Request: fold
Amino acid sequence: MKRLSVIVSLIVLCVAISGCNVQENACPVEEEVLYQVSTINALLAGAYDGQVSIDALKDRGNIGIGTFAALDGEMIVLDGNVYKAKYDGMVEKVDDMQTTPFASVTVFNEDKRIENAEFDDYDSLQNMLDNLIENKNLFYAFKISGDFAYVKVRSVPSQEKPYPPLAEVTKNQPTFEYENVKGTLVGFWCPAYVNGINVPGYHLHFISDDKTMGGHLLQAKSKNAAILVDQTPSFQMALSEDKAFARLKLEEDKTEELEEVEK
Reply:
């Protein structure tokens, strides 16, 4: 299936946004780029068909988050490996032939670090991370590793066509709670102007050190964590020429729907 090279004309300060043909590897792999497959509004609308192979995605970054074809679980990309947090709470390493309808990855280059960080909940973690964001018009990748006193995550089950909207799927999402676990949070902070394209603000996923627990982060508490930050000034997005994608009404404001899904 042919993939479209799309240039998104969001010219904000020094944010360079360009597109490339993923399957043909038409663009060189660049660092300091947040590479994204599809848009969050497309995912909200139920566009769950895989667009890019995991093999191609790994060529674009070694850390990131997303989901899989048919919305089959939560994706965690860590140190160049791709993991799936499944509907039943189990985690598995993903083979390169699987595909994704939505994902964000980057080549992680540490710009800042905080050692021995403490936070009592997700809100206090976000407040701490806010102090590390110097330019709210750029993108930031995070890798937060340590001892977690408490983590709450969710995953989603694989869907069948005709795909329901994401908000319907997450109404019955399974959640999992863990105590005293070592692990890593990975994800991004995106500027407000990406509303409809990605998730404005924070979007983090968790995976345990033993790779048996993980999912979309809902809550976390830690008394000893290392926070690594990568400021990322460029954004690159790949879209599809599929007829199904062409029929999507992506101009609709889905802010409230997205907030419901994320929480």
Observations:
- The first strand starts at residue 3 and ends at 5.
- The helical segments are 40-44, 54-58, 122-130, 166-170, 243-246, 255-262.
